[in-house]
Amino acid sequence: MSVTWLVTGCSRGLGFELVKQLASESSNIVIATCRNPDRATALQDLRYGAIGMLHIVQLDVTDEESIYASVQIVEDIVKEKGIDYLYNNAGIDNEDNAFNIKSEDLLRILRTNVVAPALISQVYLPLVERSARKVIVNVSSSFGSIGVDKGPYLAAYSISKAALNMLTYKQAVAKPNITVIALDPGWTKTDMGGPSAALEPHESVAQQIQVVTSAAKDSGRFLNYSGRILPW
Ligand code: NDP
Q1: All domains of the chain, ordered by start, with CATH?
Q2: Which residues form a coiled coil (predicted)?
Q3: Residues lining ligand 1, Cβ inside 6 A
C-alpha cells in the first residue's frame, strides 16, 4: 500500500535530502513543497530519477494564502489516501543572544518556526486524519531544549524551537488519534548547520525516516534523529 508524505522547505538542506530518499522508494507518494518551485532546480531534477511518485507544490509557510491554496492542490493528488506523514521541516535561524535580539527577527523566526507549523497542521489535519498512519513531525532542535545546555547563542531560534516543542505536546494531547512528535535532526551539514557539522544530510535523514516510521508509540515526545528521547 502506498504511503503519502508532505514535506515543507524542500528546496535545499534536510528537506531536499528527505525528498530524495523518500522518492527512491516505490511505495511512497511524496509531496515536496517549497516557496519558489521555479528556482528549486535540484528539486525539479529529482523528478527524473524518482522511483516513487514525486509532486512539487508551491508552499511558502509564512503565507496563509499559499497554505490554503496548497491544500486544494494536495487534496486532488492524495484524495482518499490523505497524508500519512506531515513533515513540518522548513525553518530559519539568526545569530543573536538574549540581550541583542531585534523584535523583527524574533517575530520573523516565530512566524516561520512556530506559527507556520501550527497553521499548516491545523489546515492539513483533515488530510492527516484521513490517512492510515496519521503522523505529524515537527522538526525541532536541541537548541529548543532547556535540559540540553547549548549556551547563550541562537536565542530567537532556541525560543522558537522551545515553543514548537510545546506546540507538539499540545497537538499530541488534543488529538490522541494521531501521532505528533518533535524531532531533532542533529547537527547536520546544510546551509543552516554549516560545513563543520557532525552529520551528512543523508545520515541524518536515513535515521529520521527510521524514527518517524516507528513513532506511533511516541506521540507527544521530543526525539532526536537516532530515536533518543530528549529532555524538553
Ligand atoms: P536550511 O537553511 O539548509 O534549509 C531551510 C529550508 O527551509 C530551505 O528549503 C528553505 O527554503 C526553507 N524555508 C525557509 N523559510 C521558508 C518559508 N517561508 N516557506 C517555505 N520554505 C521555507 O536548513 P536545514 O535543512 O538545515 O534545516 C531544516 C530543519 O531542521 C529546520 O527546521 C531547522 O531548524 C532544523 N534543524 C537543522 C539542524 C542542522 O544542523 N542543519 C539542526 C537542528 C535542527 P528557501 O530555499 O526558499 O529559503
Answers
A1: 3-224 (3.40.50.720)
A2: none
A3: 8-9, 11-15, 34-36, 60-62, 89-92, 112, 139, 141, 184-185, 187-188, 190-193, 197
